Amino acid sequence: MAGTQRYMRYIVFALIALILLFFISSSSSVPSAQWPNYTSETPADPVGKPELATASGAKDQLAQPTTSPNDAKTLPPAVVSGDRMNATFVTLARNQDVWEIAKSIRHVEDRFNRKFNYDWVFLNDAEFSDEFKKVTTALVSGKTKYGLIPKEHWSFPDFIDQDRAAKVRDEMKEKKIIYGDSISYRHMCRYESGFFFRHPLMLDYEWYWRVEPSIELYCDINYDTFKFMAEKKKKYSFVISLYEYVETIPTLWDAVKNFTTAHPEHIAKDNSMKFLSDDGGETYNHCHFWSNFEIGNLNWLRSKAYIDYFESLDHAGGFFYERWGDAPVHSIAAALMLQKEELHFFNDIAYYHVPFTHCPTGEQYRLDHKCHCNPSDNFDWNGYSCTNRFFELNDIAKPEGYEKEQ
Ligand SMILES: Nc1nc2c(ncn2[C@@H]2O[C@H](COP(=O)(O)OP(=O)(O)O)[C@@H](O)[C@H]2O)c(=O)[nH]1
Ligand SMILES: *[C@@H]1O[C@H](CO)[C@@H](O)[C@H](O)[C@H]1NC(C)=O
Ligand SMILES: *[C@@H]1O[C@H](CO)[C@@H](O)[C@H](O)[C@H]1NC(C)=O
Ligand SMILES: *[C@@H]1O[C@H](CO)[C@@H](O)[C@H](O)[C@H]1NC(C)=O
Ligand SMILES: [Mg+2]
């Protein structure tokens, strides 16, 4: 008897379970007609290339409730109208740099390039991975291009004595000189000094803006910096300047003097020697523009003057027998072979590359441009900066409040 009762209870439970199951499964097929569909025709974000941003769809948007409080209609125009310069961003990077360059791209896009959509050229001594290409293409608002560096631009020239170069690397390692024992760092410095502007992908452009992994931009840049360079007849620019580590360039100045003696025709009359030397060119004071940021003219780098200069330095051997950096190499060229009016200090490009910050002096400027740098981090008026010399040499008035940042 107790057995039958238990049996009946099982049947009742089973029936209830079946009925419940029926309701659950059928309710999921009830059409949710009262919910408007979210379609891509009513973009939450109309930001895009100019030709894509049209007024169509605006009416639909009014008719349907928005699904997000972040209403894009209140955003300022995303893309500046008008023509563009013949210009590109350029980055030398390894595949493993992908996430660090991704951060840099976000900064550049957010603060500048989303409004201008300039192209971006990536260069590498090895083939870029699919992941690198996918991630960077998704982040850049302009076209992206990926170039392989030819072997002959990333190897020891035949006139370099390999044993001598190897001995130097051992000695520098011993002395704990940063990158002192690195072969690849030397190839990188030589490539940036003499070859990046000659890569086939770069031949399509006249202007470049160099970007390295893990940099930051701290203020909005609301105008076309390339157009500024062209209109003001600028050829080379910087945001941070400082003294080079002497151990890496003991004979660089001698090599430069050999070049200027051999090619006096390449030296500009109204040059910036005062930035480089305190004794009229006898010795180098080690000041240089920090080349991890550069906006410059590629045709100048491709000129006979610059190529003669690079080849002269290259044959002197210091890229391998010492550890010459592309920063002093570019800087000395710009200071000696350009008119001083052709150099520009971009005070308005607030910038960070480990370990230095350029944060524009002047509170009102920083507020107006939505800057997020801490002014007390500004390196400009620090004793190790050479920017003060640039101001004095060019007779530029220092920004108000600079004394407080010294
Ligand atoms: N493809 C490639 N890029 C390199 C190599 N070494 C450095 N770079 C790039 O060259 C630039 C300078 O190198 P980085 O490590 O930032 O040097 P640092 O700024 O002087 O410390 C960066 O854009 C790097 O991504 C290399 O061996 N291969
Ligand atoms: C929502 O989309 C579905 C599938 O595309 C479609 O069948 C349905 O009719 C749409 N509903 C409305 C309210 O537009
Ligand atoms: C851009 O500049 C390069 C180098 O000067 C030149 O070869 C190219 O024709 C220019 N492109 C345009 C569209 O003007
Ligand atoms: C400069 O030229 C002199 C004379 O030719 C040479 O002895 C010296 O090694 C050169 N210096 C450098 C750094 O190339
Ligand atoms: Mg770097």
From TrEMBL:
It holds the Pfam family Glyco_transf_15. Residues 1-29 form the signal peptide. One of its GO terms (biological process) is protein O-linked glycosylation. InterPro entries: Glyco_trans_15, Nucleotide-diphossugar_trans. GO terms for cellular component: Golgi apparatus; membrane. Transmembrane segments: none annotated. Residues 35-79 are annotated as: Disordered. One of its GO terms (molecular function) is alpha-1,2-mannosyltransferase activity. The active site is at residue 294. Keywords: Glycosyltransferase, Signal, Transferase. PANTHER family: ALPHA-1,2 MANNOSYLTRANSFERASE KTR1. Belongs to the glycosyltransferase 15 family. This is Glycosyltransferase family 15 protein.
